[in-house]
Amino acid sequence: MRVCQVLAGDEEGGLEKHFEELCNRLVSYHEVHVIAHEKYRERFDEKIVFHSLDLSKGRKNIFILFCLFRLIKIIEPQILHAHANKAVDMIATIKPFLSGKIKLVASLHSQKRKLSSFEKFDHVIGVSHTVLQGLKNRHKSVVYNGVALQDIKKDPSYLDQFGIYDGFVICAVGRLESIKNFSLLIRAVKELDVKLLIVGEGSEKDKLQKLVNELNIEEKVRFAGFRRDVPEIIINSDICVISSDREGFSYVMAEALLLGVPVLSTEVGDMKKILPTSFVVPVNDLESLRSKIYFLQEHYMEVLAQYEKSFQFAKKHFTLDAMVESVLHIYSKIVKV
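RE: above sequence
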């Protein structure tokens, strides 16, 4: 089967990570073509046919839409899989001009108000039940993102490099943007005897550093910046906290659970389906977040037992093999229709 994957952005994050890993696994089963920004070329398996096209310029750019249409016509895929809103909008726009033999698959990676383009696809894959809410398309499935982890062991001195030598350690990972609400987490640890390690870069970094200074908690909070050793940081932390206002699927949550590290999260995505419900707190609720962190610290060994079901759920659903198997099943099913 010839499969064409389309990514329209040029950013770095969970979406791009998912796209790369899915394509590199699918090529073991099918002929895979990728249409994406040139910057991603070297990240793909040599067996993948890479087509460089910068779709980030605008989803209504007539010239770009024509180039996309022409490429798809040359490739002649049986499956055309568009990832996230921009690519989905562009494929939906040129759909009337595409061969009716091509089956269209869309991946929805976050909660969106406007879903009209997704209604035009033969099947929609959502990274959580939450992101599919409001979608009228009956042909939809939840496929959780898969995570590839090496065999990682704890290292008692690993966090020394961040000036963290002891104590109860919280890690928080993500883009330093307002939607992640790291300011809530920073405020939550002010009165607690903990260490907070924030991993990531973003436009709010200076603002968050200023907040730490204003609260006079420089000794409690460390900013690690962008890191490629996130799993090593997570496994050497006591808990992982997600304080987001919105989240489609959290790679950090998946990695932490696969590593056996408890996750405390706001009520975003499918957290209530995955984590012990008592450790899912309302969005932007400072006191709930603070009290749960304190409880986790005081009853840590007891809490670990409560997370066992979540750890097992992660092993079943959050692996790359599980993700690819589910996607292959969807492809096979819609091609037969």
